[in-house]
Design goal:
The protein is of the alpha+beta class and 75 residues long. Helix content is 51%, strand content 25%. The chain has helices at 3-16, 51-74; strands at 19-25, 32-38, 44-48. A three-stranded antiparallel sheet has the order 1-2-3. The chain is elongated and about 55 Å long.
Length: 75
């Protein structure tokens, strides 16, 4: 099957399941966030990476920034 046929079939499957895919870039981490949303209710079904993982990545980025500024002030 061609890539176009596979994409078309995948879209039909999501339409039949009343699901939409939403791709976004997280402002802080710059990671792609994929959300599966119920197209009728707008309810979030699944998010990759999870909200918890995004929060963890944001905290790690903050710690890296704080460690860098501490090293610069001591030098």
């Amino acid at each position: 099957a061609t890539a176009k046929a596979v994409a078309t079939r995948g879209n039909k499957i999501f339409q039949l399941a009343n699901r939409n895919l939403n791709f976004q870039i997280d402002d802080t981490t710059k990671h792609i966030v994929i959300k599966v949303v119920d197209s009728e209710t707008g309810e979030l079904i699944r998010q990759i990476p999870t909200a918890e993982m995004l929060d963890f990545m944001k905290r790690m980025k903050e710690l890296e920034g704080n460690a860098g500024s501490l090293l610069q002030t001591k030098a």
